[in-house]
């Protein structure tokens, strides 16, 4: 059979040089003329018939190419849960810009066995990062998860694991946050990746990254920290030393306890209170240990901040509170160092004593003021004690700025605290003082479901009678947010 390549060669070389059998063409090619051989005497001669055959052949080839049969588009898996009603979907959308409130809405939707429709997910994800998808995933349903896997949501960015975030992070704060998240998920992997990083980065970066090891800190971290402690760079050495002091049995922890026994002597006197004698020689490498060499009281206080509070009975035969009283009697101020110890070793009893110490501060030319409650120490206390202290601070006229203390309380806020909040708000209305936008958010996030209606009604009353004129905008936003939260709980709880 004569094919198109035969025609092309004959046309290129010329009919006189190359014969082609036009009778052997496929049936759909019809060449006019009786002489079917190039060079015969048929109509028009061989050249026109050859070109005509080539043209027909090209047309026939194109005509035989048929488009592929349309494939049926891939469908998402069938849904197993019903979607939330449209009215509640709108509530979720309005709360989507606040991560805490969105998390609460997702928990309620998931607890009822419902899901969000893909259109609701699109609106909730507008302008969001991958973290918001992690929040919404439990209520995305089969279609939502399928669409996200396909990258179908507008502006969607890839969801990164903790390890991928660590690998992509460039700013110091982002790198530290990524490493902390990685340590929380997998301490061993976090330690391995950090060890690789410490081998190539500068000392300043090492010093910034090492404190992240406090998340999941354990005996397995001892070799890495010991290597940094024995290094020459001061920054990484200090960071490693502070972590090693928390590990019982480490050389650093043992050395601090030995110095405590050497530098503090308890003189027990008949019928009189014990007395401390602070002395001893500082170590020759005091700078390496971050300990003052020349001042015995300063050396002792530095050791106090690095020794677990529960170790003092074994070391000196004194409770940590007895030690604090004797250090004060010896003319030192041990409380900042004891605060460090309470936070480092998460010692609840010591934190309670420090928080309850008198907070009066005398200022020249001013009436007595009160230091703000220490949020970090408050978080170590039992819940009833936290609530009582925060309510007292809100009600105390001398407490100039009590709003920050509310941050130490986890949700839900007790009625005593939010009522004290509102009382303080009314009291400060004439002065224009009061909470900031961040403090308003704290209140709105932490009001419990049972109190949403009551708090909303109290805020509406403030607005109606003009007591909250200075905070008209945040008051309206607060009422709106509480109304949305209340609607969710009424429908889904």
UniProtKB/TrEMBL annotation:
Disordered: annotated span: 62-85
Pfam families found in the cross-reference section: DUF5691
Feature: compositional bias, Low complexity: 62-72
The organism's place on the tree of life at top rank: Bacteria
Biased composition (Pro residues): 73-85
Protein name, as recorded: Uncharacterized protein
């Amino acid at each position: 059979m004569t094919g198109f390549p035969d025609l092309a060669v004959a046309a290129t070389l010329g009919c006189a040089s190359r014969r082609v059998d036009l009778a052997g063409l496929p049936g759909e090619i019809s060449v006019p003329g009786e002489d079917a051989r190039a060079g015969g005497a048929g109509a028009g001669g061989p050249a026109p018939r050859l070109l005509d055959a080539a043209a027909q052949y090209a047309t026939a080839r194109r005509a035989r190419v048929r488009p592929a049969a349309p494939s049926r588009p891939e469908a998402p898996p069938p849904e197993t849960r019903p979607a939330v009603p449209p009215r509640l979907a709108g509530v979720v959308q309005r709360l989507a810009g606040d991560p805490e409130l969105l998390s609460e809405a997702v928990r309620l939707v998931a607890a009822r066995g419902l899901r969000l429709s893909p259109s609701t997910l699109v609106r909730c994800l507008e302008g969001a990062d991958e973290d918001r998808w992690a929040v919404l995933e439990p209520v995305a349903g089969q279609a939502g998860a399928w669409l996200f896997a396909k990258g179908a949501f507008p502006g969607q960015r890839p969801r990164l694991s903790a390890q991928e975030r660590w690998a992509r992070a460039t700013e110091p704060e982002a790198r530290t946050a990524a490493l902390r998240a990685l340590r929380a998920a997998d301490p061993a992997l976090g330690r391995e990746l950090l060890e690789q990083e410490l081998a190539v980065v500068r000392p300043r970066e090492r010093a910034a990254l090492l404190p992240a090891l406090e998340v999941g800190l354990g005996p397995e971290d001892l070799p890495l920290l010991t290597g940094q402690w024995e290094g020459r760079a001061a920054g990484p050495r200090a960071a490693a030393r502070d972590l090693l002091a928390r590990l019982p049995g480490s050389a650093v922890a043992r050395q601090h306890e030995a110095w405590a026994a050497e530098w503090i002597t308890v003189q027990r006197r008949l019928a009189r209170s014990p007395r401390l004698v602070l002395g001893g020689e500082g170590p020759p490498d005091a700078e390496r240990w971050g300990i003052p060499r020349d001042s015995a009281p300063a050396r002792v206080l530095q050791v106090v901040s690095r020794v677990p509070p529960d170790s003092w009975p074994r070391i000196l035969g004194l409770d940590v509170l007895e030690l604090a009283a004797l250090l004060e009697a010896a003319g030192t101020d041990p409380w900042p160092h004891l605060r460090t110890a309470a936070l480092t070793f998460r010692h609840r009893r010591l934190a309670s004593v420090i928080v309850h110490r008198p907070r009066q501060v005398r200022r020249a030319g001013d009436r007595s003021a009160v230091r703000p409650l220490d949020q970090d120490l408050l978080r170590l206390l039992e819940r009833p004690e936290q609530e009582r202290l925060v309510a007292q601070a809100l009600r105390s006229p001398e407490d100039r700025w009590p709003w920050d203390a509310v941050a130490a309380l986890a949700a839900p806020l007790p009625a005593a605290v939010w009522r004290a909040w509102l009382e303080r708000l009314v009291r400060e209305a004439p002065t224009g003082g009061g909470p900031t936008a961040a403090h308003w958010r704290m209140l709105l996030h932490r009001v419990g479901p049972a109190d949403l209606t009551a708090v909303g009604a109290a805020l509406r009353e403030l607005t109606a009678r003009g007591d909250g004129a200075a905070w008209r905008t945040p008051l309206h936003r607060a009422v709106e947010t509480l109304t949305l939260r209340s609607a969710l709980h009424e429908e889904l709880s």
